[in-house]
Amino acid sequence: MSSIEALAKIISAGVQDIEAQCAARGVAYPTPDVVCSSETDTIQNEFSSQATPIIAAAYQLIATLSHPQPYLLGMGLWGYFPTALAYIDATFVPDILREAGPKGLHVNEIAAVTKVHPGRLGRVLRFLATRHVFEEVAPDVFRNTRLSSGMCLGKSVKEIVESPLDRWDKSSGVAAIVSLNGHENMKTAAYMVETLLDPVTGWSEEPTEAAFQRGNQTPLPCYEWLEQPENITSLKKFPNAMRATTHYNSDKAVNEGFEWDKLPAGSLIVDVAGGIGNLTMALAGTHKHLRYVVQDRPAVIKAAQEHWAAKMPGAVEKGFVRLEPHDMFDPQYIRDASVFLLRYTTHNWSDKYATKFLTRMREAAQPTTKLIIIDGISDYLCRDTSSIDDIPGAAKPAAPEPLLPYPDSTIGWGYLMDLNMLAMMNCQERTVGEFVTLLGGAGWKIERICRFEAPLPQQVICVPA
Predict the structure, then answer these.
(1) Per-residue pLDDT tens digits for 197-218
(2) Other CB atoms closer than 10 Å to residue 310's CB: what's the count?
């Protein structure tokens, strides 16, 4: 069987299997013309692991059948997808079409809401319709598909027009991250080549010497830039965008995996750079025999106090949870921690800086202290994993050939996020080997890895070396 036939078989058999299971349950797998809803989300989430190799095979089949010239020329222009989507968010199109209903709306009426050029808006909508983000049902008449309806903000168009800066609040965050990708991230990406070719910045690990600084003509690191008054729009969208990156079942990657229930009563868990404490709150709600400390910058801890008072009243007052200001680059003052926790922290820093805060925790660790890093792991795209096979949980079961070994990685946004982190702050997502090197330089070693299905993060369980 040729690779083309094998890929086609994976697609055909996989689709038939999903359809058969849906039919047996009396449901239909959502097609693009079905508006996004909690019901469609539930079905897609349930079948995500089965759909993943089908999607990966479809991508690979396209690459296999494509001539290099049109394929690479098209890929070179893919940057217009995020900018087009950001323009769609800025003109409120998904919610305008949501109110218009299944018959759709003429582009002249869509454009009238935000007073933009109707012909140019129509060209953007038609471009996105080639990838089924919208559907053109009659000449210049467009309606939402399931994909574009995923950007809806859940507010009336009148409310959005009256307060456009607040439009992302209390939404799913999808529109906010689409806007972030199309504005701030694309501006940064445009300067990535010259930043990487520069003999200074191309080798730098400083968060102030990334493509972001060139793109925004600023000496400030990303987070400080966001806090400047003139960047209020970017600041408003950022926390909403981060909500879209959180998987619906993300607490699973906190409460499961490591055996929290086996820790002795009174064991101290220290959530380093823990923000307002959402990770700790997920643990504290289940594992009440433990004690917890959330550490972060003073301004964040102040917000955390309000958050805990509203969401878990009494936990702080009774001493069950402590909220304490601490800079993770300063010496760690807690010396009796059973577990130090880091969630989505290591990927925010280059090795130079990550080594510093990991070393601070190692200096404060007891021989029995564990370090648990909850973060993404970049998979290798080869089948030879012999270099990491001695770490329990490090190697993943590989998909059959001719598929690339790990379909969940190839269709996800992990590798894109890695490049985005490089461009924004000179930091990175890491492979297992890169984690081994980083942790070894700070006095830790990986004991094992607790794996979860993508897009959930993984748990890297470490002990003092």
Answers:
(1) 999 999 999 999 999 999 999 9
(2) 8
> Are residues 280 and 413 part of one domain?
yes
Q: Is residue 169 part of a domain?
A: no
Q: Which of 113, 131, 160 is the last residue of a domain?
A: 160
CB 463 within 8 A of CB 382: no
**Residue 301 pLDDT > 90:** yes
Mean pLDDT computed over every residue of the chain: 95
Q: Please provide the DSSP assignment of 64-83 as one string.
A: HHS-HHHHHHHHHTTTHHHH
Residues 296 and 438 in one domain: yes
| Residue 376 backbone dihedrals phi, psi, to 5 degrees | -75, 155
- 326 given a catalytic annotation: no
Does the pLDDT value for residue 248 go beyond 80? no
Would you state the structure tokens that stand for residue 7, as one six-digit string? 């890929």
Name the active-site residue from 183, 307, 326, 347. Answer: 347
Range of the domain at 53: 3-65
**pTM confidence score:** 0.92
What is the tally of structural domains in the chain?
4
Cα radius of gyration (the chain): 24
